[in-house]
Specification:
Elements: H1 12-27, H2 35-50, E1 56-61, E2 77-78, E3 85-94, H3 96-100, E4 107-114, E5 126-132, H4 146-157, E6 165-169, H5 175-184, E7 187-191, H6 195-201, E8 211-217, H7 218-231, E9 234-240, H8 244-252, H9 263-266, E10 272-278, E11 289-291, E12 294-303, E13 308-316, H10 318-323
Parallel strand pairs: 1-3, 6-7, 6-8
Antiparallel strand pairs: 1-2, 3-4, 4-10, 5-8, 5-9, 10-12, 11-12, 12-13
């Protein structure tokens, strides 16, 4: 029989164990003011579980280069080494500052797609993005002025512009964007961190978010693109250079700063999978909770090919996890 190299089974059901592990580990650091400690705990826990997942994974979006990140670095091989061959985009804590300060909306995320299908941003850390749910797919265009995009989205949703909620990272670089949005009368939700969760929220009924706009992380854009691919939403991006050094690096490696990156550019296949688990409660997911009976988590699990999105509420027994050697899940921050 011909060996299938592309992932066929629902890998997301395996991957959710990795985000649950990362979320439970990071949640022990909630409010402790140590975002590095929270991130490292999540990385350690996620990597431990990833070793058992049946795939030959290559990290395209990770924690940095090998010399900068001891685990889950760009270019690292993960999984148990058996087929299928996959690309991996991972953020053990999307919202490290949110976690460290005990604020809402931090999640642990991972996305997987068949090998060669994920966009590698190389040296380009930032991207101008626009993300919408299914009702806005094919409607908005990052090249259009803010008022035209919001007018078109409101029409597609059959609401007034004043009913729309626009998510924007709270950064000085967005002062002009915020002014333009306010001029239209739309509502604005400024966030400190966590634009993966906010991008996904545009496609999640009940999250109260209609569109995400502005400059955020390019790696986060690729991860969010995988989720929106599964959910029928849309994301467009354009690489953004912070300074002349960024521009020079982009030119040297052949990146076009004027190119509009579509959802298919960022993740070129629908054979993709996504999992996210809440660390601190937010619009998208409930955070990790500790009770006398154990630990509860809430996760989203998605598959692009089928368009299936699952919400998984799980209860974990720390004593059982310790018996299995999974101490990261239940150990307190020291």
């Amino acid at each position: 029989m011909t060996e299938r190299l592309a992932p066929e089974r629902n890998l997301a059901l395996d991957l959710v164990r990795t985000t649950e592990a990362a979320a439970m580990a990071a949640a022990r650091w909630m409010g402790r003011g140590d975002k590095i400690g929270a991130d490292q705990a999540a990385v350690d826990a996620m990597r431990e579980v990833l070793r058992s997942v049946t795939m030959d994974g290559l990290v395209i979006i990770g924690e940095g280069e090998k010399d900068e990140a001891p685990m889950l670095y760009n270019g690292e091989s993960i999984g148990n080494g058996e087929p299928p061959k996959t690309d991996i985009a991972v953020d053990p804590v999307d919202g490290t500052t949110l976690t460290a300060q005990g604020q809402a909306g931090a999640i642990a995320v991972i996305a997987v797609a068949e090998r060669g299908s994920m966009y590698d941003p190389g040296p380009m850390v930032y991207m101008d993005k626009i993300a919408v749910g299914p009702s806005g797919a094919g409607i908005v265009d990052i090249r259009l002025p803010v008022d035209r995009n919001l007018t078109a989205l409101a029409k597609a949703k059959r609401v007034s512009i004043q009913d729309l909620t626009v998510v924007v990272l709270d950064r000085p670089r967005h002062d002009g964007l915020v002014a333009e949005i306010r001029e239209t009368g739309a509502r604005i939700k400024l966030i400190r961190d966590g634009d993966v969760a906010s991008a996904i929220a545009t496609a999640w009924q009940g999250a109260g978010v209609d569109i995400l706009m502005g400059i955020g992380g390019t790696p986060e854009g690729v991860i969010a693109a995988a989720a929106l691919k599964c959910m029928g939403g849309d994301l467009q991006g354009r690489l953004w250079a912070r300074d002349d050094a960024d521009r020079a690096a982009a030119e040297e490696q052949g990146y076009d700063l004027d190119k509009i990156l579509t959802l298919d550019d960022l993740v070129s296949t629908d054979n993709c999978f996504f999992a996210a688990t809440g660390i601190t409660s937010g619009d998208l997911l409930r955070g990790v909770r500790y009770t006398e009976d154990g630990i509860s988590t809430q996760s989203l699990v998605m598959r692009g090919r089928s368009g299936t999105v699952r919400v998984i509420d799980a209860h974990h027994k720390p004593s059982k996890l310790r018996e299995m050697g999974a101490l990261h899940y239940s150990r307190r921050a020291e």
